[in-house]
Structures are given as C-alpha cells and as structure tokens.
Amino acid sequence: MPSSVMPTPRQDDGHPSPAAISTVGLRKSFGDKTVLDGIDLHIPVGSIFALLGPNGAGKTTAVNILSTLITANGGQAQVAGHDVTASPDGVRAAIGVTGQFSAVDGLITGEENMLLMADLHHLSKREGRQAAAELLERFDLTDAAKKPASTYSGGMKRRLDLAMTLVGNPRIIFLDEPTTGLDPRSRHNMWQIIRELVSDGVTVFLTTQYLEEADELADRIAVLHDGKIAAEGTAEELKRLIPGGHVRLRFTDPAAYQSAASTLREAARDDEALALQLPSDGSQRELRSILDWLDSAGIEADELTVHTPDLDDVFFALTDSTDVPNQSKETAR
Q: Is the pTM of this model over 0.90?
C-alpha cells in the first residue's frame, strides 16, 4: 500500500500548532543498517503522540535521539525549543523518560527511590520530600512508600517509575512501551494517569506495541516502517486509508428493502437478511449523504451500521504483514 502522511496539525487561525517536538529529515544508521531514514515529525504542545512499528522498526532509537541518549547521523530535531545536538542540557531539563525497562531500584523503598531522583534533580531535602510525598499520593503509592520496591506488583513498579520521571516536573515525557507486561486493569490505570498528565499541559511521546493503546490515547499516530513514516494522522484518518469500510442498512419491511435495493443498485444485497451493504469510508459526510437520501426517498432503514477497519488492519497493511486475518469493528448508529 502506498504511504500517506496527513497534514501538519494547525490552529484555528491556520498556522501550525506550537511544537513540543519537531524533526526534519532525521536519520540514524548502525553500521550499514539504516534504522531511521528521514523522519519528519511535528508534535503539538499538550498532546499525546504515538509511534507504532514492528519490533526493530526504530521506535526506541527515535526516543533515544530525542532524549539525547544517542546522536543522529543526519537531520534536525528540536525538543522544547532546544536543538538536541546543540543544546542537549536544555532538552534534558525539559523532559522525563520512562523506558521499556524499569529504572526502579528494588533494593530500596519506593520513597527512597523518589528521594534519590530528587537528589539527581538537585532539589533541596525539603523540596525533595515534598515532591516525593505529593507524587506517591498522586500515584496511590503512599501505603507502600516504606516497603522495598522489590515487593511491588508490576503495575505498582510502573507507577513508581513514572512518578520518578515526574520529580523534575518535565513538560515533555517520553514513554517507551510503558504498559508492557501489565495486566488489563493496570494498563487502564496507567492510561488514566497519562490522560491526567496531558490535561495538565504535558506533552507525551508514546511508543507502544498495543494498537488499542494508541487508539485509546493518542491525538495523532505515526506508523514507522523500513525507517520511514508510512502514515501519520488521527486514528480515524488512518483507518480511512484502508479499504473495506462499508455501511450496512438493514430493513424489517420487505417493501422498503426492495425499494432501497432497486434505487441503490451499487449496493451488495442480502435478500435473506433484508440488508444492503454500501462501500464507505465512514466519514460524517458520507453518512449524512446516505441519511439524506433515505429521507428524500421516504425510506426508513431499521438499522444503520458502520463497519470501519481498526488500527490492527492499518498496522498490518502498512507494514506489509499478511499473517493476521482482517477484522473490522462495527459501530451501530
């Protein structure tokens, strides 16, 4: 499938939204292997951006470059208004990073982990204790604060890891697969925490292997494949890139069904179910057109169902995978 990149997000006045993170032509190679091959990104302040891609696609490499852990071979990148190469200290002062592997030290308590992070941020003892207490309470870890972190559940460790990231009050946070290995309840709890961060104006750059997670959280999503951005947009924009969407009209009155079928000759018929299927991208414009047509023809459908591809379909189509069956989600209207 040909790649497609959606337009840069714009404000109501037509100008590009202020960027928390931006890259132009970002490149990175390891030996003769090109991992990032000219990446352009524009991530607005106070938004959640999700980077998807197969294992080894370069998601973590992108995070490591933007968080100044490694350097790019080419291109430009700015984070919080600072060039990642020319002003790495400025970038580090503005960001927090939670990686795939927890930074929590299991040999000390949760509170001690927090205070250690406060020391690294050069907070005074009073400021450090205050920050630790507030964040432990925010992440529902107060009762476990005096216990060794090794006794924490997976969800508790991830919450502590994120709490430690927030000690320096970063305005941009990189979350590299933050819910890997968590049970569904812990994942949903982490999602709520991420939403709360963004409601406070924090920008989140998220990599994830869970497509549902990107669909649930992200304002914009990019799919990384073969070192390039294969597509970028909102979840709904990406879903409309994939063929197979349609609208299904079901009738209980045989006469209404026959009348609709004789007029909508391009529709696929299901005479047994008294249903018609029309190709559609699921857009509001198309749905309004179908409803307007039904009204003008004096025909009443008993059920209108929109079938749209999900992010799984998008991911596998864009990354040329054929080993997973196509599935579509249905939304009754």
A: no
